[in-house]
Every structure is written in C-alpha cells, then in structure tokens.
Amino acid sequence: MNTDIKQINEKVKNESGFVDLLFMELNKVIVGQKQMMERLMIGLLSNGHILLEGVPGLAKTLAVKSLANSISAKFQRIQFTPDLLPADLIGTLVYDPKKSDFETKKGPIFANFILADEINRSPAKVQSALLEAMQERQVTIGHTSYKLDEPFLVLATQNPLEQEGTYPLPEAQLDRFMLKIKIDYPSKDEEKEILKRNISGENYLPKQVVSSNDILNARKVINEIYMDEKIEKYILDIVFASRYPKEYGLEKIKSLINYGASPRATINLALGAKAFAFIKRRGYVVPEDIREISKDVMRHRIGLTYEAEAEEITTDKIVEEILNKIEVP
C-alpha cells in the first residue's frame, strides 16, 4: 500500500505543476481572495459547479473571467435578467427560408466556462434550463440533444443584498452546486493594493498557461488519490450528524435543523478533499482537507428552522458545531 501511495504522490507532483502557474496568473489580476481562488480550483479539478455569493465589487466576475483566460478554453458570460428566456441561454431553432427548413442556432451555454452573473435575477424557467445543462452535461434543442464540451463548468454569482425582483434558487437546485463560496471584504492592506493598481491605469490580462487537456489529465490523477476508510467514515459522520444530530450528542442543534445535507454532500466532500490534496501536492487525503471544505460543501445543503433564523444562527455555525463534536480520525 505504501508503494502505491508513493506512486500516487509522484503522479500528483508531476501533474500538479500547472496549479502554481494558474495561481500566479490569477494573483497578477486579483488582490487577496486566496480562499475564493482555491475553491474555484477545487471546482475546476473535481468537475463541480460553484455558486459565489458576496456583495458587489468583490471581484467575483473578474476572478472567473481571469481563470477562464488562463486556460485555453471558451468562456461565456451571461447576465441573468428578469426578461431572459431559456432560448437566450441554450439556443433555438431558426427557420431558414432558402432551405425551407429549421436550423439550430446554439446559445451561449455551448462553452467551457459559463459565468452566470446574478443567477437569482432570472425566473425559474431560465434557472432550470441552466441546471439541466449542469446536471446532464447536455442540451436539448427541438428533438436533438447536444453534448456539451469538457471541461464544462458553471460559475454562478448571486448578490445577497437586493432581494427585490429576484427569484431565489430552490433548495433542490442549490444542491446541484458542488460549493457555495461566501466572499468577504478585503483587508485594509489588500484594499490599498487594489486602489494603487486601479489608479495606476495598468491593466494586466492573464496569459493562457494551461490547456483543457491538463485539466482533464489532472482529474484522472485526482480519482487515484488515496482515501483511507477512516476518512470515509469521518465524511459520513459529518453528513449524518446534520441529519440525525441527536445520535451524535448534538441535541442543542436538533431544533435548529429543518433537514440535513443530501448524499451529494457526501460525494462532494470526498471529491473536494481529493482536489484539495492535489492542490497541496499530496497523493492522499487527510482530515484537515475535509474540515477545510466542509462549510463550502454543506452551507447550502442544510435547511434551518424558523427558530434558527429567529436566533440569527447560520448554517456555517451548525457545520462548526458538527465539526467540533465529531471525532477527528
């Protein structure tokens, strides 16, 4: 087994060189936000879609755009608005009078990176058209289904402030996102650097340093990363504690949870931890990898009761309580 782990370690070291290159390119454009960039990389490497939540001006759109520009892949930004139609997203059939036939006009969804800006600004019809593409990795126009190119990654943003005229994503649709990242304000020093960069008039455009094949090869290596049975049990305990808190001695949070995390949380904790180990150049998963991504994987998968909302308790606080209680292997 040790030789296997040694071999996987070697593979990881050989294949993960591009990770530093990507971070270097992103750091030339974005100040701080290390956690956000790491999470974007986890989504990219484990083939999982990401929901970014934060107030305007925190470089959400810039980060996604810069990541796409650093990889030789097709990028499309779609601004979600209340009048957007599913056809504006996936495409439609257009009648060609010369041929007396219908032609398929493909929509912006046919790209590798989709930035769905302010996803909660569009009605349910449009959201469900996007979520079908996310889940099935294909789009149906008329009677024909079209496979989407790999890598295919949806990075959606939502603004938590203005809730007027928005259509919040239903729980079942939120569950399709591997991670929900909450983005905070930069520190004073970081904001000083942002200020300097923006008044100097120098605009740096990221260079393409990675190919789509590098990403697809890395995903194969990530599947081989070793995960011990104790780590698997740890993941299961974390997820099951959100469903049956009483069984894990968490009586005090039982009345705060309406429903626990779904099986997708279990899968994504495992995949995300492997991708995080890859970023850290390791061929095996440690408990710290699980703890590192637990909030991002679970914050949008736990339903709170009215009691919790009245007491202003967040899902992050619930996940913290679970992590503090479950024994680390």
The assigned CATH architecture of the largest domain is 3-Layer(aba) Sandwich
H/E element string? HHHEHEEHEEEHEEEHEHEHHHEHHEHH
As a percent range, the share of strand residues is 15-25%
Radius of gyration: 21 Å
Tell me the structural class. Answer: alpha/beta
- CATH H-tier superfamily of the largest domain: P-loop containing nucleotide triphosphate hydrolases
Overall average residue pLDDT: 85
Euclidean distance between termini CA atoms: 19 Å
CATH class category of the largest domain:
Alpha Beta
Question: What's the domain count?
Answer: 2
Structural summary, described in words:
With 329 residues, the chain is an alpha/beta fold. The chain has two domains: 33-195, P-loop containing nucleotide triphosphate hydrolases (Rossmann fold, 3-Layer(aba) Sandwich), CATH 3.40.50; 224-323, Orthogonal Bundle (Helicase, Ruva Protein, domain 3), CATH 1.10.8. Helix content is 49%, strand content 16%. The chain is built from 15 helices and 13 strands. The strands form five sheets. Strands 3-6-9-1-10 form a five-stranded parallel β-sheet. The protein has a two-stranded parallel ribbon with strand order 2-11. A hairpin with a 2-residue loop joins strand 7 (138-141) and strand 8. Helix 12 (263-279) packs across helix 13 (287-298). The longest helix is centred in the last third of the chain and has 17 residues, at 263-279. The protein is globular, with a radius of gyration of 21 Å. The mean pLDDT is 85.
